[in-house]
Write a structure and sequence with these properties.
The protein has 278 residues and is an alpha/beta fold. It has twelve helices and seven strands.
Length: 278
């Protein structure tokens, strides 16, 4: 029995094409399927949250201010949110997330999770852990698995977290805004969450696609009036309405339908008193 086994192994060794030409019928070699990343729930527990607060206030936010001096308009819309919201922005730079987090009021920032592309940030487990700690990210897939992604995002919103979401699905290569993907409308429809349109301008010069380090440069962030689905409005129509608002913010509009009237903005900026209606 032992002799037969050794003989079989010798035959296999002689017949195996070590480094030889692959038959045309064989599929192309590919790396193994990576493990599915977790949703990094540990990043939203103590003491990690307190540690992230120290990192952001001690390092990230001062560095962002020095490098880009962000000019923020419309911050009052996020100061006293009634419930968790989807923060929908254009995406032109790796610097966008840190700049947008800088633009948020402290209370909103501390309750915001960032949707990060699983195929980019989580290919290396150590990198996924770093951005999870630093930016409070959760992985989402840009190719397939839409139902699972929407479920994860929905659970976070229902748990009280705001969601920073790049609805274009990827960074712009030339600074121009692309079309929003319908997943934004589906998520808003599923959770009934308001969507806050945001537009960032100037960050493409700071760190465009392909550059590994930032350069100093001024940026501006405009935050628009929160949007909610109209009765009978479908997900695609709502996504298109959010995209229109973001484009209008980028064009500098002062349309009250996009930025709110002065009385709406004043009401939004008023401190909320316990038991008072808004």
């Amino acid at each position: 029995m032992r002799f037969e086994l050794l003989s079989d192994l010798e035959t296999l060794r002689r017949g195996w094409r070590w480094g030889g030409v692959r038959p045309a019928s064989w599929p192309e070699p590919a790396p193994g399927v990576p493990d599915r990343p977790s949703n990094l729930s540990w990043a939203r527990t103590e003491p990690v949250r307190s540690f992230r607060l120290l990192i952001q206030r001690g390092l990230s936010l001062p560095f962002t201010r020095i490098m880009t001096d962000p000019q923020v308009e419309g911050r009052e819309w996020l100061r006293e949110l009634d419930r968790p919201a989807i923060l929908a922005s254009n995406h032109v730079s790796h610097a966008d997330t840190q700049i947008l987090l800088y633009a948020l009021p402290d209370r909103a920032r501390e309750r915001t999770v960032v949707a990060a592309a699983a195929d980019y940030w989580y290919r290396r487990p150590w990198l996924g852990r770093v951005v999870g700690l630093w930016l409070n990210t959760f992985p989402f897939s840009r190719t397939g698995g839409a139902r699972e992604v929407l479920h994860s995002a929905s659970e976070l919103l229902k748990s009280g977290w705001n969601l920073l979401y790049y609805a274009e699905g990827t960074r712009s290569a030339d600074g121009r805004m692309g079309h929003f993907q319908p997943g934004l409308g589906h998520l808003a429809n599923q959770t009934r969450s308001p969507v806050v349109p945001m537009h960032i301008k100037g960050s493409h010069r700071v760190m465009p696609k392909g550059r590994a380090f930032p350069l100093p440069g001024p940026v501006a962030v405009r935050i628009g009036k929160p949007l909610a689905l109209h009765p009978g409005e479908d997900s695609r129509a709502f996504t298109a309405r959010v995209e229109h608002s973001v484009r209008q913010l980028g064009s500098g509009t002062e349309d009250p339908a996009v930025v709110g009237s002065w009385i709406e903005r004043w009401n939004a900026s008023r401190p909320r008193t316990p038991g008072a209606s808004r």
